Amino acid sequence: MSTEPRPASRVAVVLGGGVREALLAQPVLRACDGATVFASADAVGTLLGLSSVGRAIVVDDSPRELLRVFRRLRAGSVDTVVVPFPARLLHVALAYFAGVPRRLIAAGGNRWAATERVPGIKGLHPVEANWRLGAVASNRPVLTPGEAPALQPPEAVRSQATARWPAFIGSGRRPLVMIPGGGGWSSRRSSGLWPAERFAVVANQSRADRVILLSGAGDEQIVRETRGGIAKPTLVINLAQITVDEVAVVSELSLGVIGHDGDALHVAAAAGALVLAVVRRPDIPPRGDRVVTLWTDDFERFPARQVVEALSKQARIDSYA
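and the corresponding structure tokens:
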């Protein structure tokens, strides 16, 4: 499956992961105008509004699909391949053994396969590191940091979303959106979670009169536990039944979005929503103008009070903006 091609570019971008990783890699995609992008079915939803993408080819990590990518890279029509964060060994090896002359790879243990070093990216947030990677790939000077990831859903999607959930969004209603689980379309969160009862406390103490819970892969139990503690009208939306653009619209029309590092939280930040990211290392908080990052060493000991106060403080700031 592929989109209609634009004028040929000799640059290919091999994306690993899903929605979150595609958003983190957006600076590379913007910089490499007309590039052919190999991406998962989940990630393709984030590419639809990017005019810089020449062709998007949906692939997975099955042997058959990897062989297809290898053959395309090997064919000689590509002279530069970029593997943004996270640069998986599998994809790095594809670029290396396909013999692509110029290989630019995100920092990490895969530098052996790169033909050029990108200076100053170690320890940077992946968005900033990928921006530097994109600048080098497009032979542009590395000056000030680029823009944060952004999503701009079509007006038709906005109308469809408000019509789909009229009791929760639209007509002045601004629900609180919460992601108590990992919030991934396909992948489950492997690290810990902030307890469900703390999410419920925040929901009950917020000024929102309605709550939306986004449920990703493997999130069913913690979403049920969270919903059980909320004393307000609550809607559960399964990510498997909603598009990236629809999540962006729901987030954009919310009072705020609270959750863990994962697909849905990064979509909310890219949509320009107020985002409160409850994270612990090695989590990667989203980048955005309205992102508040709340770091903790221990989810079990992190109090709901801090999130309630941060939400209230930001609401006051927004009201005076």
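(Above: one complete record from the training split.) The longest strand covers residues 53-58.
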